[in-house]
Amino acid sequence: MAAKYGDAFVTLKSAFNKVSKRLTVKADTPTQYTLVSKIPSPFPQHKGQPMWFASVRLGKAYVSFHLMPLYMNPVLVRSISPELKKRMQGKTCFNFKNDPEPVLLAELKRLTEEGFKQWGEMKWV
After folding, report:
1. Which of 9, 58, 63, 89 is the most buried (most CB within 10 A)?
2. Residue 1 above 50 pLDDT?
3. In angstroms, rounded to a whole number, what is the distance separating the alpha carbons of residues 31 and 84?
4. CATH of the domain at 109
């Protein structure tokens, strides 16, 4: 049941605290929190639409933490610890069944802030 992962959802959502005010909240429900850019995407296929930056989603079997800057930044991906890498699904997603350990939460916060900084340098946020 998804309700048992609620604590992990709240904890993972806190990884966005430093950047959330500089982005647009697209969804803020008990099961999803999604942040997008305030400015339109520079990519032709998404012209005029905001860019999806990050999300936390409460599912049936785990909580997913998605961070889109990882998709575009191989240097940032190489900085992911082996412990966090074990939770990685695909290129931008990490799954948790419990509250993340403090060291992993700190790492997710670092990745989020560094990803936001990179997007700022590219004038995407």
Report:
1. 63
2. no
3. 22
4. 3.90.1150
Only one residue has tokens 């990050």, namely 54
- 55-87 pLDDT tens trace: 999 988 899 999 999 998 999 999 999 999 999
Rg, Å, the chain Cα set: 14
Non-local CB neighbours of 13 within 8 Å, separated by 6+ positions: 33, 56
Q: What's the whole-model pTM score?
A: 0.90
The rounded distance, in Å, linking the Cα atoms of 53 and 70 is 10
- Give the tens place of pLDDT for each residue, 42-60: 777 777 888 899 999 998 8
16-19 long-range contacts, Cβ below 8 Å, gap at least 24?
Answer: 16/54, 16/56, 16/112, 17/109, 18/109, 18/112, 18/113, 18/116, 19/53, 19/112, 19/113, 19/116
| Distance of alpha carbon 6 from alpha carbon 97, whole angstroms | 10
Range of the domain at 7: 2-121
